[in-house]
Backbone:
DNA sequence: AAAGAGTTTAGAATTATTCTAAATCCTTGT
DNA sequence: ACAAGGATTTAGAATAATTCTAAACTCTTT
């Protein structure tokens, strides 16, 4: 488990390593994404951030998100015909999109399976990332698969479970 | 291999089975998607269709695409922050998005692997579909992985290879 | 041939995202 | 401390993709 100030320190380090500046806007955007382990859209993030920093603009939120994705602090998730969502879970995992509730669940992926996935690629194809999305119904499941208290974090990228 | 008229017959059957009407617009949209084994956007499809049916509207193309997806005659593919693409290949397969050229390649998926993917789902999660997308570089590869002449078709849904 | 459902059409509306140019904020050299 | 210069933020305009709307059209059935 890591504290907000540890996350903030990591953010600062990553930004500086990439030749970028640690700004209050980048920090608060990152913070609200980590606070809640869901998959918010840019607009949702904008709404959450505004309560803490009422003067921030939507364009800045988009800029910050782009920066955070670049620095590999968050990932981008796209579902069919829906606004882009952002995911703080950097652990290798799949997404399950519940078509009934619209909820997105993180699904753990065994490392061996990920390796196997890469083996399906013909010679010459080098994948830098894989995205696996299931669509269907999660019968009676309202809880996230990865509870917040053992979820992967910056300083513990693979989680405690 | 199947002929255009066989495809058209299948389309008609599927539509009628779903209580929908086989219309000239639906037929021509389906036809242009099958003609070229790529992953066109709605706009690209609109452009191709217009040469054969100049009066068709973009809204109709969107309507037809929705219908075809519903009838499981084509699939929808979404890449990050990019317009939706449509795929005539119904064979279980992954997509490889070449970030250098922007091209999308179909990647064959062994049936066992697909089964394994479903096994990662916790109890209660029933997936009706899976989407697997790789992102990276396809060194020097300009040919599609599934050549058109043995690609899966309506009457031969798993292809000849 | 009238009724009624399904479909198409053009254009407006909406939504998500990116662009632009001016203002502001840091950092660094002096 | 202070000016220069690059990085960042801001508001609002612009763009792109998609969906909506309402009228017209077209089948099919009576």
Residues:
């Amino acid at each position: 488990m890591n504290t907000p100030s540890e996350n903030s320190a990591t953010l600062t380090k990553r930004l500086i390593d990439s030749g970028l500046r640690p700004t209050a806007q980048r920090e608060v955007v990152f913070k609200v994404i980590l606070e809640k382990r869901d998959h918010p859209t840019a607009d949702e993030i904008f709404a959450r951030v505004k309560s803490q920093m009422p003067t921030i603009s939507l364009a800045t939120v988009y800029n910050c998100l782009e920066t955070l994705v670049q620095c590999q602090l968050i990932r981008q998730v796209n579902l069919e015909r829906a606004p882009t969502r952002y995911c703080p879970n950097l652990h290798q995992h799949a997404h399950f999109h519940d078509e009934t509730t619209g909820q997105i669940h993180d699904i753990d992926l065994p490392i061996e399976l990920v390796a196997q996935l890469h083996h399906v690629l013909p010679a010459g194809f080098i994948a830098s990332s894989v995205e696996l999305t299931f669509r269907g119904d999660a019968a009676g499941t309202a809880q996230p698969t990865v509870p917040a208290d053992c979820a992967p974090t910056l300083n513990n990228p693979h989680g405690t479970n």
The mean pLDDT of chain B is 85. Chain B has two domains: 4-77, 91-150. Residues 21, 23, 41-43, 58-59, 62, 83-84 of chain B lie near DNA strand D (CB under 10 Å from a C1').
